[in-house]
Amino acid sequence: MIRLVVMLRAVYPGSFDPPTNGHLNIIERAAKICDELLVVIAVNINKEYFFSAEERLDMMTKSIGSIPNVSIHLWSKLIVDFVDQKNAKIIIRGVRALADFEHEFELSMINKALNPRVETIFLPTDPKYFVLRSSAIKELATIGGDFSEMVPEIVCKAINQKIGSS
Ligand code: ADP
User: To test ligand 1's pocket by mutation, which of 133, 137, 149, 151 has the most ligand atoms within 8 angstroms of CB?
Assistant: First the structure.
């Protein structure tokens, strides 16, 4: 009998501005169900970010540590093109509430139209991270709220440094 071994290579794209414990939870869980996980930090020239692409890359690299089947990339073009270039077939997206799902569902339809070969898989958030979003952390930080339990330590330091220097 001939056995065909298929490598499951998945892509997890996002702004990660900054990476949060919710993102890390999705990465850890996705890494367990696929052979290779490529985390893609989106660089959209039309979008204004709090952290630069290099800063987001650095924070993500340090936050993830060494999960052997996870790699991190910067990408400024269409995500489906990255998926194709890396010969992957799956995009992973995390969903929290129903409102997230609506947006994510539309996004997956757009990606499907752009490249029918690519499938999107949604991972529901861990309940611990249900209300966690990067925008809320930035808001909390600017008004002096405590966000230290919501992000990795390195991210917490980077936010405080950025706010302190602005
Ligand atoms: P976007 O890529 O839309 O700018 P983010 O960078 O914040 O958004 O998030 C990347 C992906 O991770 C999205 O699919 C988003 O829904 C998901 N995500 C963000 N925060 C959480 C969380 N707390 N739990 C689960 N998934 C999350």
Answer: 133
28-55: b (≥16 Cβ within 10 Å) or e:
eebbeebebbbbbbbbeeeeebbbebeb
Q: Is 9 a catalytic residue?
A: no
Whether 134 is a known active-site residue: answer yes
User: Is 47 among the catalytic positions?
Assistant: yes
- Catalytic pick among 15, 63, 93, 96: 96
Locate 49 and state its tokens.
């970010």
Give the pLDDT of the chain (166 residues) as one tens digit per residue.
777 777 899 999 999 999 999 999 999 999 999 999 999 999 998 999 999 999 999 999 999 998 999 999 999 999 999 999 999 999 999 999 888 899 999 999 999 999 999 999 999 999 999 888 899 998 898 898 899 999 999 999 999 998 876 6
Q: How far is the CA of 166 from the centre of ligand 1 (A)?
A: 26
Q: Are 9 and 90 in contact (CB under 8 A)?
A: yes
